[in-house]
Backbone:
C-alpha cells in the first residue's frame, strides 16, 4: 500500500495542480475557455427570484370540448347520423344517437385510422375515449389525450413566458418545464420581481368586438365589465380581430390630447378584416377586450384600411409599455398561477456569501488546529491533504459549472469536518499495528489495508444519503447534496493518493526511527 | 480501557425513555412546520428606523387581515422575520403589504427575502421530504443487510431510528422550525449515524473472528475502546465544523446546523449504546459471523 511509482507521483501531482488551477479560475480570468469556468451562484447567494408557475388547463379543456361538439355534429351530419342532446358536463361530452347507429359511432371512434379521434400508436391510445352509458354515449379525453393536450399547452406557454421575460430584459433567465403543467422561472439578479410577476399573471387574450344593443346577435352576446369597473356593456361574441393578428404593438404619446396610447399594426388578414368591420360599422362602438375586461370601446368614425390603429384607455406610460409588451409576446394558451415564489435580495445574498466564507474559514481553521495538536506531523499531512481536497472539490464544482448554494457551502464545511475521518481511521489503525509490530513499513502498510473496509463502508453510507437528497431535494438543498456527494469522492482521492504519498515518502525516509506515529 | 458495557442497561433505559418521550412529543405536540411544508408567506425585513420593531410590525400586519401572523427578530436588532398563512392565497399580497407599510414607515425598510409557497406545493414538498427520509432509511437497511449479519442490521437500524426520532423530538420540544434544510440535515444525520455505527461494527466483526473465547458483552466493549479515539476525533472535527456554521454561517443555516449538531451527538451516543447493546442482547457470537462467512 505504500509504494508509489514515479509515474504515479507525476500523475497525482499534475491531476491535483490541474484542479487547483481550475478552481482558481473563479478568481482570475483565463483566456482559455477550458479554464475560464466559474461556479454558478445559486439564487440564494446572488439574489434573484424563483417562480414556479402552474398552467390552469381547465379552460383549455373546456374550450377543446366545446370545439369538439361542433366537430362531432358536423362530422356525423355528413355521414347521415343524427346526433341529439349533445352537451358538456364535467369534462365529458354526452349525446344520443339512434340504437341502429350506436355501434357504428363507437366503431368510428375506436378505429385506429379514425379521422375524428387521432390514434397515438406509440402509446397505444386514442385521444378520446367513448363509452356507452346505456342512456347515452359519453366521450372524454383519454389519459394520453390529456397528457398531449397539457404538453402542447405547456409548450406554447413556455414560449410566451420566455418572450415576456426576455422583453423585460433580465440577465440570463432560466426557464424550464416541470412535469407537464408547470414552468419554472429563475431570474438571477432581479431585485424586484413584481413587474415580471404581474406580466406573467396575465393571459393577454386580446379581442376586438362590437358593442351591441341587439341581444339576439347570431353569435351570442355577453355582458363585460370595463377594466376600471365603472360600467358594463353588452358585447357580441363575434371576434373581429384578436391578438394573433397583431404584428407589433408600441406605447406612444398621442400629441393631440397628451395621452399615452398603445399603437399597433395588423397582419394582412387582420388588416383586411379590420378594414371591412370599420367600414360597415361606422357609428358603432368597437370594444377592445383584454382577458374578459373592456379596456375601451371607441366609436368607429372612419374606415381604417391601413392595418394600423391605437388603443387608448387612460394608460400611464408604464401600463402602456406593459400592455404593448404583452400584446407583442402573444397570449398564453391558459392562465398561469404562481404557486411558489422565493426571492432573495442581492444584499442578503452577499451577506450569506460572507457568512458562509467566514464559517468555512473558521471551521477549517479549527479542524486544522485540532488535527495538528492531535497528530503533529501526521496532522500536518492531513491538513495539507485537506487544503488540496478543498481545492479539488472547488475545481470539480467549477469544471461542471455546478450551482453553489448556501446549504452547498454548509456541505463544503461539513466535508472539511468529515474528510479527516478517513485519515483518522488509518492513523489510529497504524497506531494499533505499531503496538506489536516494530517494522514501521509493515505497520503502516497494515494500517492502510485493514482500515479500508471501514472507510469504504462509512463513505458509501454518506454517499447514499447524498444521492437520495439530490434526487428528492429541491433548489438550495440540491446544492448541499452536490457538494456533500462530490466531497466524498475528492476526500477519498486526496486520502488515498495525496496523503498516502506524503506518508509513504516520510515513512520510507524515517523507517528506522522508532515508532513514527 | 473504559468499561462502557457496565452502563449498557442504564443507557438502554435512557434511550427507550428518550424515544418514548420524543414519540409522545411528536404525536401530541407535533412539529412546527415552516412555510415550506405548511404553505404561506415569509418576509425577511430589514429596517433602518428605530420606529420599526416587533410590536409595531405586529400591529401593522395584524391590521392587514392575513390570518395568523408571526413576527420575530431575526439575528440582529433591525432584521425581522414575518410569517403568515396567506389563507386566501391572494395574488398581489406582497405589493399590498408594501403599500401598507410605506404609509406608516416610509421608505425606511427593505424586503430582503420573500418566500411564498402555495398549498399544493407545500403538500408536495412535505410528501417528498417524508419519502426522502423513508427511502434513505430503507436504503441504509438494505446496505447494512447486504454488508452484515441481520443482528448487526437490526442494531444499526435501531440506532438510526433513535437518532432521527430523538432529533425530531428536540425540534418538537422547543418548537424549532422544520423546513427543507432540516430534511437535508436529517438525511445527513442518517448517513453520519450509519457511518459511525459501521466503523464500530466492522471492528466487532473482526474481533469476533479473531477471538472465540471472549463473550460478546466484553467483545463489544473492546471494540468500542479500540475505535474510541477515532470516534472522538471524527465527532470532534465534525462538531467543530458544524459549530462554525452555527455561530458564523448566518441566520438561515442556524436550524440546519443545530439539527446536525444534535444528530452527531445522538449518532455517536447511539453507535455505542444502542447498536452494540442489540448485539449483546441478541447473543451474537463467533458462530454468527462464521456461519455467514461459510455461506458466502
Residues:
Amino acid at each position: 500500500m505504500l509504494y508509489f511509482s514515479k509515474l504515479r507521483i507525476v500523475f497525482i501531482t499534475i491531476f491535483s495542480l490541474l484542479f487547483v488551477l481550475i478552481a482558481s479560475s473563479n478568481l482570475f480570468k483565463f483566456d482559455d475557455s477550458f479554464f475560464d469556468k466559474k461556479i454558478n451562484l445559486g439564487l440564494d447567494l446572488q439574489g434573484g427570484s424563483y417562480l414556479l408557475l402552474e398552467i390552469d388547463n381547465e379552460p383549455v379543456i373546456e374550450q377543446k370540448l366545446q370545439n369538439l361538439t361542433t366537430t362531432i355534429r358536423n362530422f356525423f351530419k355528413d355521414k347521415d347520423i343524427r346526433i341529439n342532446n349533445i352537451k358538456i358536463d364535467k369534462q365529458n361530452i354526452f349525446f344520443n344517437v339512434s340504437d341502429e347507429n350506436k355501434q357504428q359511432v363507437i366503431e368510428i371512434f375506436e378505429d385506429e385510422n379514425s379521422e375524428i379521434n387521432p390514434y397515438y400508436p406509440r402509446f397505444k391510445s386514442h385521444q378520446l375515449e367513448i363509452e356507452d352509458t346505456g342512456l347515452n354515449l359519453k366521450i372524454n379525453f383519454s389519459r394520453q389525450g390529456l397528457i398531449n393536450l397539457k404538453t402542447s399547452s405547456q409548450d406554447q406557454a413556455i414560449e410566451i413566458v420566455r418572450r415576456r421575460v426576455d422583453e423585460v430584459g433580465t440577465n440570463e433567465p432560466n426557464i424550464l418545464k416541470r412535469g407537464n403543467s408547470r414552468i419554472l422561472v429563475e431570474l438571477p439578479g432581479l431585485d424586484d420581481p413584481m413587474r415580471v410577476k404581474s406580466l406573467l399573471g396575465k393571459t393577454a387574450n386580446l379581442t376586438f368586438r362590437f358593442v351591441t344593443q341587439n341581444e339576439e346577435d347570431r353569435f351570442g352576446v355577453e355582458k363585460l365589465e370595463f377594466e376600471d369597473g365603472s360600467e358594463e356593456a353588452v358585447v357580441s361574441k363575434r371576434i373581429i380581430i384578436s391578438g394573433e393578428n397583431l404584428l407589433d404593438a408600441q406605447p406612444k404619446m398621442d400629441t393631440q390630447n397628451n395621452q399615452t396610447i398603445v399603437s399597433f399594426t395588423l397582419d394582412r388578414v387582420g388588416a383586411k378584416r379590420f378594414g371591412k368591420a370599420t367600414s360597415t360599422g361606422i357609428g358603432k362602438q368597437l370594444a377592445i377586450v383584454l382577458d374578459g375586461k373592456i379596456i375601451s370601446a371607441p366609436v368607429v368614425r372612419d374606415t381604417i384600411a391601413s392595418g394600423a390603429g391605437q388603443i387608448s384607455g387612460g394608460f400611464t406610460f408604464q401600463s402602456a409599455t406593459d400592455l404593448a409588451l404583452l400584446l407583442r409576446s402573444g397570449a398564453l394558451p391558459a392562465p398561469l398561477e404562481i404557486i411558489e415564489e422565493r426571492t432573495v435580495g442581492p444584499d442578503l445574498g452577499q451577506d450569506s456569501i460572507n457568512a458562509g466564507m467566514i464559517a468555512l474559514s473558521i471551521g477549517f481553521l479549527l479542524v486544522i488546529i485540532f488535527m495538528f495538536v492531535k497528530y503533529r506531523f501526521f496532522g500536518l499531512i492531513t491538513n495539507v491533504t485537506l487544503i488540496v481536497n478543498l481545492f479539488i472539490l472547488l475545481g470539480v464544482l467549477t469544471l461542471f459549472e455546478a450551482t453553489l448554494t448556501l446549504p452547498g457551502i454548509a456541505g463544503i464545511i461539513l466535508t472539511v469536518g468529515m474528510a479527516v475521518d478517513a485519515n483518522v481511521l488509518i492513523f489510529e489503525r497504524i497506531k494499533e499495528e505499531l503496538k506489536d509490530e516494530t517494522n514501521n513499513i509493515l505497520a503502516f502498510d497494515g494500517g492502510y489495508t485493514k482500515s479500508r473496509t471501514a472507510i469504504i463502508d462509512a463513505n458509501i453510507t454518506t454517499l447514499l444519503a447524498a444521492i437520495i437528497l439530490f434526487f428528492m431535494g429541491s433548489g438550495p438543498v440540491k446544492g448541499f447534496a452536490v457538494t456533500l456527494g462530490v466531497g466524498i469522492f475528492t476526500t477519498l482521492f486526496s486520502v488515498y493518493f495525496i496523503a498516502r504519498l506524503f506518508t509513504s515518502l516520510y515513512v520510507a525516509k524515517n523507517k528506522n526511527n522508532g515508532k513514527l506515529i | 480501557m473504559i468499561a462502557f458495557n457496565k452502563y449498557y442497561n442504564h443507557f438502554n433505559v435512557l434511550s427507550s425513555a428518550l424515544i418514548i418521550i420524543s414519540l409522545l412529543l411528536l404525536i401530541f405536540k407535533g412539529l412546527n412546520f415552516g412555510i415550506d411544508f405548511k404553505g404561506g408567506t415569509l418576509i425577511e425585513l430589514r429596517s433602518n428606523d428605530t420606529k420599526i420593531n416587533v410590536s409595531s410590525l405586529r400591529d401593522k400586519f395584524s391590521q392587514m387581515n392575513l390570518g395568523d401572523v408571526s413576527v420575530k427578530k431575526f439575528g440582529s436588532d433591525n432584521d425581522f422575520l414575518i410569517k403568515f398563512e396567506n389563507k386566501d392565497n391572494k395574488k398581489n399580497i406582497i405589493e399590498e403589504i408594501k403599500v401598507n407599510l410605506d404609509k406608516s414607515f416610509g421608505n425606511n425598510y427593505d424586503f430582503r427575502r420573500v418566500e411564498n409557497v402555495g398549498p399544493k406545493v407545500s403538500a408536495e414538498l412535505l410528501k417528498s421530504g417524508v419519502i426522502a427520509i423513508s427511502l434513505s432509511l430503507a436504503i441504509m437497511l438494505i446496505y447494512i443487510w447486504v454488508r452484515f449479519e441481520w443482528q448487526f442490521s437490526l442494531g444499526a437500524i435501531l440506532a438510526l431510528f433513535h437518532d432521527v426520532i430523538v432529533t425530531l423530538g428536540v425540534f418538537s420540544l422547543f418548537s424549532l422550525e422544520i423546513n427543507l434544510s432540516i430534511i437535508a440535515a436529517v438525511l445527513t444525520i442518517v448517513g453520519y449515524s450509519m457511518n459511525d455505527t459501521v466503523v464500530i461494527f466492522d471492528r466487532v466483526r473482526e474481533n469476533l473472528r479473531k477471538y472465540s473465547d471472549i463473550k460478546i458483552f466484553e467483545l463489544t466493549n473492546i471494540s468500542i475502546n479500540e475505535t474510541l479515539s477515532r470516534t472522538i476525533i471524527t465527532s470532534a472535527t465534525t462538531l467543530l465544523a458544524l459549530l462554525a456554521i452555527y455561530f458564523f454561517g448566518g441566520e438561515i443555516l442556524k436550524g440546519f446546523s443545530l439539527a446536525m449538531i444534535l444528530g452527531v451527538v445522538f449518532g455517536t451516543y447511539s453507535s455505542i449504546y444502542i447498536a452494540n447493546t442489540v448485539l449483546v442482547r441478541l447473543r451474537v457470537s463467533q458462530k454468527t459471523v462464521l456461519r455467514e462467512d461459510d455461506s458466502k
